[in-house]
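Try this one yourself first.
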């Protein structure tokens, strides 16, 4: 098998015979070496196809690895797995300024794609904390969300074309730059968000936006959840289409972040139960700033918010967003940490979070409860720290967070996907009929069950 794989990619693009242990399966677990039979680095779609033909013929199980930033255990490997890493498929093939598209291979790191289009005065609106490591293939296969979904939608809203390799090596190419295509099933949507269980994404075409000429941000302190909802409505109305971020942070999370560095000492006091960070992307710098500051003053006058800080320069803007994005500070506070990314209807969030916090506080091994989220999308993140780690304790915490999802018609995963870690809870968000259809799709596209086996279903 190794000899045949070497013939496809060359000796320099495969790690085996112990060398695979130089790699790891997650960026936060660099001390745990990859446990697999080999790691292979294809450089083209054709090579992926040949690898998959060989694997299909030999019933060889494959784990696909991108930037290794997922939070659901989906890139973890077993002894007999073959890892296909997309690290070497890292070419930006084209930026088409007239069609406003970028064509990228799936191993391109998000931040590199963002910088490349920025130089052409365009914008790829995807934005989240792991952008410096996450790869396009991983982002597309998890349908990542992030900080600007309120305005631009999830990853699936930004994709025009896709190329994938199926489990038997067949290449399916739908690399079109058009927005409207109702000629039958929208096949690309099958692969977006399917976490590498139906095919290996090799290339993607994203649609781009004009680069905004202004970006302003503010952080506000609020005394109750009802006003958080009022503030969202107020800002959506006042800024119409230019509100591009609305992030909610609970008090304990804000306090921990603010206290973590002297960098944040000029930010708001830590005495509010809720903090909201907003972002405006616009095209008229002077008037945009004026409009935002007027709105903030009005929100204070109308008692919707209590206090606010409007970033006056790039340094303050970065400081506000660092506080929101650098979640590793929260994870490091705990001996062991569990991450959650549930979806709930906006009106029930306060009550559901309070119920969960109350129950979690009764568990003696819970060290920290950090809550924050993309409120406008109804997406709440929990990072829960515990002093001891075993299956029973993990399950107890999972059960508390996921208990009312079905009742509220929420979702066990707003963003990160199901992977391996959340499989047992898929049924909290999906009906038997839906799960059955997922199984039928999997069987039809990967009949030998060799692609990312055991993920999602
Ligand atoms: C600090 C931090 C912040 C984050 N913030 C957010 C956030 O705001 N919003 C959000 O949605 N997510 C967030 N995430 C998680 C997010 O899902 C991942 O960052 C990203 O989408 C995964 O990309 P990756 O390249 O790291 O993929 P990996 O972790 O390598 O893989 C993820 C999944 O995709 C599969 N895969 C990888 N490449 C391919 C491919 N080419 N074809 C098919 N399948 C493939 C893998 O097998 C795996 O199942 C965050 C993660 C971190 C660490």
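Now uncover the answer:
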């Amino acid at each position: 098998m190794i000899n045949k794989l070497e013939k496809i990619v060359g000796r320099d693009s495969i790690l085996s015979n112990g060398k695979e242990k130089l790699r790891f399966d997650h960026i936060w677990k660099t001390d745990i070496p990859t446990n697999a039979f080999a790691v292979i680095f294809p450089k083209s779609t054709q090579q992926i196809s040949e690898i998959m033909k060989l694997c299909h013929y030999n019933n060889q199980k494959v784990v696909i690895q991108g930037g290794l930033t997922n939070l659901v255990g989906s890139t973890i490997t077993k002894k007999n797995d073959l890892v296909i890493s997309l690290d070497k498929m890292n070419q930006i093939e084209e930026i088409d300024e007239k069609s406003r598209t970028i064509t990228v291979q799936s191993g391109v790191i998000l931040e590199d794609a963002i910088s490349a289009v920025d130089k052409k005065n365009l914008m790829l609106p995807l934005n989240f904390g792991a952008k410096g490591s996450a790869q396009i293939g991983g982002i597309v296969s998890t349908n990542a969300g992030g900080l600007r979904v309120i305005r631009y939608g999830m990853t699936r809203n930004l994709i025009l074309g896709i190329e994938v390799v199926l489990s038997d090596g067949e290449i399916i190419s739908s690399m079109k730059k058009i927005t409207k295509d109702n000629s039958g099933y929208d096949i690309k949507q099958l692969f977006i968000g399917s976490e590498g269980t139906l095919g290996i994404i090799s290339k993607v075409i994203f649609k781009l936006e004009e680069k905004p000429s202004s970006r302003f941000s503010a952080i506000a302190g609020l005394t109750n959840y009802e006003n958080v909802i009022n503030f969202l409505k107020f800002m959506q109305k006042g800024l119409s289409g230019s509100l591009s971020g609305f992030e909610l942070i609970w008090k304990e999370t804000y306090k921990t972040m603010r206290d973590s560095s002297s960098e944040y000492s000029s930010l708001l006091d830590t005495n509010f139960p809720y903090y909201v960070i907003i972002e405006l992307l616009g095209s008229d710098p002077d008037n945009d700033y004026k409009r935002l500051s007027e709105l903030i003053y009005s929100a204070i006058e109308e008692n919707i918010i209590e206090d606010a800080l409007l970033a006056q320069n790039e340094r303050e803007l970065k400081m506000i967003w660092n506080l929101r994005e650098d979640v590793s500070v929260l994870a490091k506070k705990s001996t062991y940490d569990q991450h959650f990314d549930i979806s709930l209807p906006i009106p029930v969030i306060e009550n559901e979070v309070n119920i969960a916090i109350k129950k979690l506080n009764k568990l003696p091994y819970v060290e920290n409860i950090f809550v924050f989220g993309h409120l406008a999308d109804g997406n709440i993140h929990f990072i829960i720290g515990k002093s001891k780690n075993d299956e029973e304790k993990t399950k107890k915490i999972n059960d508390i967070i996921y208990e009312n999802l079905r009742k509220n018609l929420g979702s066990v995963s707003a963003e990160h996907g199901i992977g391996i870690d959340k499989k047992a809870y898929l049924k909290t968000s999906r009906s038997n009929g839906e799960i059955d259809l997922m199984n039928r799709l999997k069987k039809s596209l990967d009949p030998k069950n060799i692609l990312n086996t055991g993920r999602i279903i």
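Discussion: The mean pLDDT is 96. The CA atoms of residues 53 and 296 lie 59 Å apart.
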